[in-house]
Design goal:
Largest sheet: 7 strands, mixed
Radius of gyration: 22 Å
Distance between the termini: 62 Å
CATH topology of one domain: Nucleotidyltransferase, domain 5
Structural class: alpha+beta
Shape: globular
CATH architecture of one domain: 2-Layer Sandwich
Low-confidence stretches: none
Length: 493
């Protein structure tokens, strides 16, 4: 009987189920969009129950569409949006509040308070992160502050915390398994990346009870099995949970130090594998855990760009500049340049390497000569500029020579963007035949754990390589203007 690996790829805007065969081909795929609510300016929330129901829906759809039998699924791997946080009642399994999404800035005042108390250095030394609303700790604290009764229950172990991987596994296992892996734990602001354990000092500083936290396990590991009633009567091993960006790094085959990938998703995320070495950034990057396989831990440098693809969604839905994001390539190529227009998409502040949470989005350089095509082109270019900002920081921190960049994410389908990115970086940009690289990474890590694949069998096929077509001088001049635009944007607060 032929066996398959099922990956659940839970991202910010949608949840997907992807079925892979032994040759790592996508056999079937199903997707369901997730509602995102913005109850106040800067707040971003989701319903964790809706996410759970979406997981059930896409798993069902992929099994039905592929016409395979449920017992043909050898293992399940889960990749997830990382810092998004939910607290739920341990008895009822119901969330105690909306899940707070990684993008949300509603915890800014809490983070500001922690910075004033001088916590920044100790946090960075232990976690590799900085104090920012992006990470989970302030989200937990916010829910406690808003709901004192939840805090009291939490202290008694009656409330559980999780990033979305923990929530999905807890539900899938029939409320029996409360775990996370090192890659997701390293995004909470509560996890010591040197000792690979929850840090008691940080928990005390932030006043977060340890009993709410999941057990931390390796990334590739047989955690538990699905409750039979959630998976067509089958108890299928869940053999991987991994943060989505780390999953993409693994899916693209960046197994050794110096391997680098860039994801153009809702946000933009660039990760570089630094091997066994934790590289401490002096340029606004994060040190994080890439994955753990057995006893072997790989680390990564990361630059997080808060707004990437979500800028295009805003231009489509709110500004109605186009009907379909597929149209943006033709629109961008219909004009020779942006006519001097720059977009700094700081809708929720700026991430790496700036880390300016008070900054707001701006469109600069507008004249009467500018039309919607110029604006769309400027939006796509902003994704490339932000990526260059991060790459330059990575180069300085790691002192590793970077010769090419692998890419994934929805916007990768846009040839204009990838060509502009190659020109700007003056290096090849590689796109692969499958764009389901996050799901593939989760599938590979699950397959390794259950013996479905060996490490030697893992790989991904190149689709197209974009090489520089414009001069370094021309691109440096454009980049210099981008830096000015960012400074201008930062000055308006």
């Amino acid at each position: 009987m032929q066996k398959y690996i099922l990956a659940i790829d839970h991202g910010t805007t949608s949840t997907r189920a992807v079925l892979f065969d032994k040759a790592a081909n996508v056999v079937e795929i199903a997707q369901k969009e997730t509602t995102i609510s913005y109850p106040h300016p800067g707040w971003v929330e989701q319903d964790a129950n809706e996410i759970w129901l979406a997981c059930l829906a896409v798993m069902s759809e992929v099994i039905l569409k592929s016409k395979i039998s449920p017992e043909q699924v050898a293992a399940i791997g889960i990749s997830n949006q990382r810092e998004t946080s939910v607290l739920w009642n341990a008895s009822t399994g119901l969330p105690v509040s909306p899940a707070i999404v990684w993008q949300s800035k509603q915890t800014k005042s809490i983070c500001d308070g922690w910075k004033k108390k001088g916590y920044e250095d100790i946090v960075k030394a232990k976690t590799g992160l900085r104090i920012d609303p992006y990470f989970s700790a302030s989200k937990i604290r916010f829910i406690f502050d808003q709901n004192p009764d939840v805090y009291e229950k939490a202290k008694k172990g009656e409330v559980l915390f999780g990033t979305m991987d923990s929530w999905i596994v807890w539900k899938l296992s029939g409320s029996l398994t409360h775990i996370t892996d090192v890659s997701n734990a390293s995004r909470t602001l509560l996890f010591n990346i040197h000792t690979l354990s929850w840090d008691d000092e940080l928990l005390e500083m932030f006043d977060i009870p340890k009993c709410i936290l999941p057990q931390v396990k390796p990334t590739s590991y047989a955690y538990c099995k699905t409750a039979a009633y959630h998976f067509f009567g089958q108890e299928v091993p869940i053999c991987c949970v991994v943060g989505d960006q780390q999953a993409a790094l693994f899916g693209q085959g960046c197994f050794g130090a110096g391997g680098i990938k860039n994801t153009y998703g809702t946000g933009g995320f660039m990760l570089m594998n630094t091997g066994k070495r934790i590289v401490e950034s002096k340029n606004g990057l994060l040190s994080t855990v890439a994955w753990q396989i057995g006893d072997q831990v790989d680390y990564a440098l990361e630059g997080s760009i808060f707004v990437s693809g979500s800028l295009m969604k805003w231009l489509r839905d709110q500004m109605q500049l186009f009907e379909n994001t597929k149209d943006t390539q033709v629109m961008a190529e219909s004009v020779e340049n942006t006519n001097g227009v720059y977009i700094v998409p700081a809708f929720v502040g700026l991430g790496a390497p700036y880390w300016d949470d008070a900054c707001q989005a701006s469109i600069l350089g507008l004249t009467f000569g500018a039309n919607k095509n110029h604006i769309v082109r400027a939006a796509l270019e902003s994704m490339a500029y932000q990526s260059k900002d991060v790459l330059e920081a990575m180069r300085q921190d790691s002192q590793i020579e970077i010769t090419s960049m692998k890419v994934d994410g929805g916007a990768c389908a846009n040839d204009f963007l990838l060509q502009f990115q190659s020109d700007l970086l003056q290096m090849p940009v590689q796109r692969f035949k499958t764009n389901e690289l996050t799901a593939l990474g989760a599938a590979y890590l699950a397959g390794l754990s259950c013996g479905y694949w060996t490490k030697d069998e893992l790989g991904v096929e190149l689709s197209k390589e974009f090489v520089p077509e414009k001069s370094k001088e021309e691109m440096d001049s454009l980049y210099s203007s981008w830096k000015k635009a960012v400074k201008t944007c930062q000055s308006y607060k």
